[in-house]
Amino acid sequence: MRNAQTSLPWRQATRYSRAVIPRRSFLGCAAAAPLAVSLLARGAPGTGEAGGIVDTNVTLERWPTRRVHDSPRLLVERLRRHGVVSAWAGSFEGVLHSDIAAANARLAEACARQGGGVLVPFGTVNPTLPDWPEDVRRCHEVHHMRGLRLYPSYHDYTLDDARFVRLLELAAERRLLVQIVLSIEDDRSQNPALTARPVQAAPLADVLPKVAGARVMLLNAFSRVLSGNTPLLQRFAALGNVGFEIATLEGAAGIETLLARVPGVRLLFGSHAPYYYFESALLKLQESALNGEQLAAITFGNARTALAFP
User: Per-residue DSSP letters for 122-137?
Assistant: First the structure.
């Protein structure tokens, strides 16, 4: 199942997506719910227990070019229905708002009040703004966040920028996981008034070995961003401290194919909900032939490792 209609010009894609929403909603309700039960029933091999899903890529608030109805409370209800026990949440306000501190405070409050113990806030930091290290400090010391979520393409810096390297160093010192969003929308379906090119991830492979203790996840990294770049994916896999989630991974048996092509790649479950349909990510687990160990690693094991700093 494709995540969005991205092969058409923007206006055509918009009309087409409206036409197929009822069908996709039906598929989500009819197929994905029993799928969640069957997947979770397998559980972690050797433990005798069913493991819940950790969704590493959800976002609160509104995105200006897509109407999303889910409040934090409704999002949590939907996630729980599909077996999600933890969801790492960023905020779309952190992408376009200039007052990052206030956006992070609202995110932390929403997760605490409406998150039901499921939503885990990941604060935004924009290293091009004045006094951005204070935002890192607040995320860690005031809001007790476990990680940060960065948007380089919207905040206009590259992954070899000295400010970004310093951000990685501060995050490593505070044992914060850093999530880097390589894209929010497919560049073929962006509104012409709000465009951003996908982040170029290659410099990160040279930067990370220089930052002791840094741990990074790349969000929305597949589809037209990194899917065909096997050499770079292999470099990241060899580093051992880079994770990927599956929200934008496309193609039949996409997870199975990627694991065969890049055996050491660290995959985690991510849905990019509610911007994408959660069920799309869930069905990716069904269409690939995964053994119990692989399934447990993707749905919760690798997520636990990502937050388990020494």
Answer: EEE--TTSTTHHHHHH
The amino acid that residue 56 corresponds to is T
CATH of 10-42+49-307, one of 3.20.20.140, 3.90.1300.10, 3.40.50.2000, 3.30.2350.10: 3.20.20.140
| In the chain, domain spans | 10-42+49-307
φ/ψ region of 295 (left if φ > 0, alpha if ψ in -120 to 50, else beta) reads: alpha
pLDDT values of the chain reduced to their tens digit, one per residue, 310 residues: 444 433 333 333 333 333 333 334 434 443 444 555 455 444 433 322 346 999 999 999 988 888 776 789 999 999 999 999 999 999 999 999 999 999 999 999 999 999 999 999 999 999 999 999 999 999 999 999 999 999 999 999 999 999 999 999 999 999 999 999 999 988 788 888 888 888 999 999 999 999 999 999 999 999 878 878 899 999 999 999 999 999 999 888 999 999 999 999 999 999 999 999 999 999 999 999 999 999 999 999 999 999 875 4
What's the burial of 136, exposed, middle or buried (CB within 10 Å: 0-12/13-18/19+)? buried
Predicted model pTM: 0.85
DSSP state of 304: H
Q: Could you tell me which of 246, 106, 219, 241 has the C-alpha nearest to residue 152?
A: 219
**Helix, strand, coil: what percent of the chain each, to 5?**
45, 15, 40
CA distance 242 to 1: 26
